[in-house]
Structures are given as C-alpha cells and as structure tokens.
Design brief:
Blueprint: E1 5-8, H1 13-20, E2 32-35, H2 40-47, H3 51-56, E3 59-61, E4 67-69, H4 71-79, H5 82-93, H6 95-110, H7 112-118, H8 126-129, E5 130-131, E6 149-150
Parallel strand pairs: 1-2
Antiparallel strand pairs: 1-3, 3-4, 5-6
Helix pairs in contact: 4-5, 5-6
Length: 153
C-alpha cells in the first residue's frame, strides 16, 4: 500500500493546470501526481496502465492498486477532501448531474487541445501525437489499419 497516484497527460495544458491546483487535497506526500510520459511503458505496465489509457483520460491508481479513470478519477480526487465530498454525494444522489459530469468530462478530454489554446495554456500535443498509423499494404497487397497509438515525437 502506498499513496494514491494521479497519472495525467504532461503535455496537456489543461491537465497541468488542474494538477497545479491539487495542493488542497492534502499535505505533500499524501498524493503523487505524475505525467504518464515520465513513467515509460514499463512503469505504466507496473501500474496496470497503457500509454493509450493515459492519453485518453486521467487515471488514479490507489494505494491498493485500484484504478479509476476519467470522471471517476476526478470524483475519487474530490472525495478525498471534505468540500469535494459534498459535491460527489450530490452527483451520485442526482443521476442526471452524474451524466452531465460524464458528458462534460468527455467533451473537455476530446477538445482539450483547442481548450488549452483558448485559455492561453500550452496546447496539447494530443491532436498531433494521437493519429492512426499509415495504412500500408501487407504482403497480400491489402491495406492494414492499426489502432491509435501514442507517438511521443
């Protein structure tokens, strides 16, 4: 068991701005916030994650090894402090609000590069790095399509 780890996209302006505001979650050492790019594939694998998981949404790995992703990770973070617990309790008591949170998170995650630029934050490399591999013909002359992969260039 250890302290919970927040794994986020270190190239995303919105993600970095939010992580900088996490000081209210408690004393230093209680949380560890790491950009997934700093962990490498082996480090992510030890946590049960892939680069694609982390490029898609924020991840929280608890001290017990449980993984929360996306809006559930945000709720886990909020639950850790008293004022946030009220908000999470309201979200779960009123399912339409929980649905709105989920949709809102998905929209922000999808358009985070554009939103970063609009808010004057360093723009995400997401739109440049997450692209399908080129469809090159295989030995039979048929095109192949690979899933989206993170390219750190």
């Amino acid at each position: 068991m250890g302290s919970p780890r927040l794994i986020y996209d270190g190239e995303c302006g919105i993600c970095r701005a939010m992580v900088e505001r996490l000081h209210w979650l408690g004393p230093v050492g209680r949380w560890e916030a790491l950009p997934y790019q700093s962990l490498g594939d082996a480090g992510l694998r030890q946590l049960g994650l892939t680069p694609a998981d982390c490029a898609r949404e924020v991840q929280v790995v608890t001290g017990q090894g449980r993984i929360f992703a996306g809006p559930w990770a945000v709720n886990y973070l909020l639950w850790e402090r008293w004022p946030g617990r009220i908000l999470v309790a309201i979200l779960f008591a009123l399912p339409p609000l929980l649905l709105l949170e989920w949709v809102g998170y998905r929209l922000v995650a999808r358009y985070r590069s554009r939103l970063s630029r609009w808010f004057g934050l360093t723009a995400c490399a997401f739109s440049r790095s997450m692209r399908p591999a080129s469809a090159e013909p295989n030995e039979r002359g048929q095109g192949t399509t690979s899933p989206l992969q993170y390219d750190p260039r």
